[in-house]
Amino acid sequence: MSGFLAGLLIAALPLLASGFWLGRRTARPTGLGGLGTPVEHATFETLHTASLAAPPLRAGLTEETARRSARRLRSLLGTDALCLADDRQVLVWDGAGAHHRAEVMERLAGPLATGRGEAFPLGCHTPDCPVRWAVVAPLTVDDRVHGALVACAPRESAVLVRAAGEVARWVSVQLELADLDASRTRLIEAEIRALRAQISPHFIFNSLAVIASFVRTDPERARELLLEFADFTRYSFRRHGDFTTLADELHAIDHYLALVRARFGDRLSVTLQVAPEVLPVALPFLCLQPLVENAVKHGLEGRTDDCRIQITAQDAGAEALVVIEDDGTGMDPVLLRRILAGEVSPSGGIGLSNVDDRLRQVYGDDHGLVIETAPGAGMKITARVPKYQPGVHSAGRPTGT
Fold it and tell me: Per residue in 244-274, pLDDT tens?
C-alpha cells in the first residue's frame, strides 16, 4: 500500500472504527464478500477511488486533468470542497464555496514559495456557505513546487490536515510519473532526431547527386528517383507517432534501396522475404532503416566487388523475428561492443547503438539487437519484436504517403 493510503487510513482509523469518515457516516457494505467491516469497506473504496483519480494526473497538472481528477480527490477526503491550483491560478474548484477562489489564491503565495502546508480560516459572509476552513498542501516534483491542493471544510480538523498532506503527496507522485513520461518522450524524440541527422547529410547529398546525373540523360528515370526520394524523406521526417508498422518501415526501406541501387547499380543485390502475418506488427519508428543503411555501408563502401543483403521478417509465435544480413567487411566484435556501450563514436555502425537502446527501452533488455560479425565475415543483425506490447501501437501511415 502506498504511503498516501497507509497514512490516510491510519489518520482516519479512529473515525472508521466508529463508522465515520471525516464526519460522514460510512455505510456498512453489502454484497462485497469478505469486506464486511467499515474499515475494510473504507480501504476498498479508497483504493478504488485512487485508481480512478490517477490516470488524468499522469498527463500532468493542467485545467483539464485537474477538472477530471478533482471530484475523485474530494471523494477521497470527504470534504465539502477541493481545489487544485498551479503557481498562477486556481485550475478547478469542485464543491461548495467557489466564491472563495480569489481568497484562496491570495493565501497560496506562502505555501507555493516555501513548499510548506498551511491551514487557515476563510472569511465568509454567506450564511449558508459550508466552507469555513481551508488546508493547503503543496504539490512538489523533484523538490520544486508545481501547485497546491486545497481542501475546504466547515471546521478545523487535525485529521483533514494529515489526510490532505497524504493525498497531496500521492498526487505529487502521479505528477512525477507524468514528468518522467514526458522526459521519456523527449528522449525518444531526441534519439529520432539524432538518427535523422546521421541519415540526412551523407544520404541526401549522394541521392541528389545521383538524381542530377539522370536529369539530361534519362529524365524519366530522374523523375522516378525524385519521387522515391520525396517518399523516403517524407517518412523519415514525419512528426507524428513514436511507433510505426513493419509494413511502413519496409516500405520506406524500399524507397531507400531504390536510391542506393541508382548509385551502385548491379553491385547491390537485395533479397527480401517477409511473412504477411507480421506486416501489421508495431515497432519503434526508424528502427530497421538504420540497420539496412549499416548493411549497405559495410557491404559496398570501400569495396570494389558486389554486395548481397538479405532481409527477412518471420513469424515466431509471440514475436516477429527480423534479420538483416550482409556479406560485407564485417567488424571487430570488441569494437562493436564498445560502440553499443557508447564508449566510442558510432561512425563504424550507423545508428546501431541508438536502435539497440530504443529496443531495450521499449521491450526490455532481453530484446536488444543480437549481432554476429567478424572482420571480413559480414554482419548479421537480429531484432526480436513482440507482436503485442502494452502502450505500443502505430499511429498509422501519415496522410499523403
Answer: 899 999 998 999 899 988 888 888 899 999 9
Does 316 lie in the same domain as 260?
A: yes
Domain that holds residue 131: 3-180
- Inter-helix orientation angle 63-77/158-214, to 10°: 150
471544510: which residue's cell? 153
Of 70, 79, 69, 96, whose CA–CA distance to 21 is shortest?
79
Q: Are 160 and 22 a contacting pair, CB within 8 Å? A: yes
Model pTM above 0.85: no
d(CA 343, CA 335): 9
Residue 37 DSSP SS3 = coil
Task: Based on the fold, state whether residues 251 and 353 are members of the same structural domain.
Answer: yes
Q: Could you tell me how many helices (H) and strands (E) the chain has, helices first?
A: 11, 14
**Cell numbers standing for residue 178:** 507524468
Regarding whether 246 and 341 lie in a shared domain, the answer is: yes
Same domain, 352 and 262: yes
Location of C-alpha cell 526480436: 384
Asked if residue 189 belongs to a domain, the reply is no
